[in-house]
């Protein structure tokens, strides 16, 4: 289940709420009971294992030119 971050405008506390994506825009009360909160924009990052950066993909080389490999473009 996704986690959404909120900040309370009353006390300044930042907290997370786990809820289904269908309820992502619903308001949330802070743990101290305040109702004046705002949803924060969060980022997502990934880490690859193995220590090496993924290889860049190369476009396949064409055998001639144009749309049909050079056989009909003359």
Helicity level, as a percent range?
under 10%
Specify the overall morphology: elongated
The tally of helices reads 0
Strand order of the largest sheet: 2-1-3
What is the H-and-E element order?
A: EEE
- Classify the secondary structure makeup into a structural class: mainly beta
Instruction: Give the amount of beta strand, in percent.
Output: 15-25%
Cα-based radius of gyration, to the nearest Å: 25 Å
Termini separation: 58 Å
Query: What is the arithmetic mean of pLDDT?
Result: 80
Number of strands: 3
The low-pLDDT segments are: none
How many strands, which pairing sense, and closed or not: the largest β-sheet? 3 strands, antiparallel
Short note summarizing the structure:
The chain is mainly beta.
Task: Tell me about this structure.
By secondary structure, this protein is mostly beta strands. 0% of the residues lie in helices and 19% in strands. The chain has strands at residues 3-8, 14-18, 37-39. Strands 2-1-3 form a 3-stranded antiparallel β-sheet, with no helix packed on it. A hairpin with a 5-residue loop joins strand 1 and strand 2. The radius of gyration is 25 Å and the shape is elongated. The termini are far apart.
